Amino acid sequence: MASITKPPVRHPSLPTNALGFTKRDYEGAMSTLCAGCGHDSVTAALVQALWELELPPHRAAKMSGIGCSSKTTAYFLRQSHGFNGVHGRMPALATGANAANRQLAYIGISGDGDSLSIGLGQLCHAIRRNLNMMYVLENNGVYGLTKGQFSASADVGSKSKRGEANVQPPIDPVLLALSLGATFVARSFSGDKAQLVPILKAAIRHNGFALIDVISPCVSFNDHETSTKSYRYTRNHYLEVAPVDFVPLRREIATEQGEDALTSVTMHDGSVVRFRKVANEYDPTNRDAAYAYLRARHAHGEVVTGLLHIDENAPDMHAVAGTVETPLVDLDFNALCPGGAALAELMDEYR
To answer: What angle is formed at CA 230 by the lines to CA 225 and CA 236, rounded to 5 degrees?
Structure first.
């Protein structure tokens, strides 16, 4: 089914960000996904996050592959760049685009089938290269477009809508990302917008590969009683590892915080953030500890959410490859084609 254009109606009292845009300006076409699909909640969180970040829509590039999840890119930032590629090949497309123009904000939308089955190798190399992009993996445990077969993320013992039990161990994208050296790893739930929005904002601002695994239930094929990716199961086994908020780079705000005490802080925009001190035993900068913690909680049947790991010091793909700062489209002819002498000098290195 083709996407339906939203009517351009704007209420005059809608709030605007510093660019003069309302949240409607960050929306896209009307969704053709099933009513209640978790992916539409992810779209709403993306719109909120990008509007709050005041990201110019024309400075973003949306990338996707094939699957229900890959339709999400049609539903936000209609004025941005975008490319919908073949099944599982979105990371390669994002790598090429990023190599040519590092000045855009790259947003990849994928699913557990697109990323963990046919596209698994592509995802691994994007992580290994520390490609500067936000990679949102909408995880529902099934192939929704082909009527509900188990995907590679389906848990052992989870039953299909027809009653068949999955017997193959799943690929956990969070554990995979940690083992491959990802520099930003998070997990959230499509039904928890309060947590997902700040995670998305932090991921966009992160310099490197930011993976967000979002449990996003499929209401048509995987939201029944015996599913481990349903709304009910996720809410009943939800464990937030730490409260999440995102504060953009501004003048420092300092406060004193006692042990186990509730602290209120007024932010630059006038809003008030209330938080408690995070448990001392969890350190999101410690990759090994994060991996061990996730394995232990998973053994207890818990869905751990929040910012699970971050490394702000790792070089991204451009730093490793030594690419130029200027987008290739802006380089003049002499820079792109230095002439025969330069080519001959290069070829001499291989003789």
So the answer is: 85
Q: Is residue 340 part of a domain?
A: no
Q: Are 227 and 164 in contact (CB under 8 A)?
A: no
Query: What's the rounded mean pLDDT across residues 297-303?
Result: 82
- Summarize the confidence of residues 260-289 as an average pLDDT: 64
Short-list 68, 297, 81, 60, CA closest to 172: 297
Within a domain: 350: no
* Confidence band of 196 (pLDDT split at 50, 70, 90): very high
Q: Are 269 and 157 in contact (CB under 8 A)?
A: no
* Per-residue pLDDT at 19: 96
Is-above-0.85 flag for pTM? no
Domain count across the chain: 2
DSSP structure string for 102-121: TTSEEEEEEEHHHHHTTTHH
DSSP 8-state code for residue 189: E
Strands of the sheet containing 209-215, edge to edge, are 81-84, 60-64, 105-111, 133-139, 209-215, 184-189, 303-310, 238-240
DSSP 166: P
- Give the integer Cα–Cα distance in Å for 226 and 165: 9
DSSP secondary structure code for residue 15 in this structure: -
Domain range for 222 is 23-243+280-321
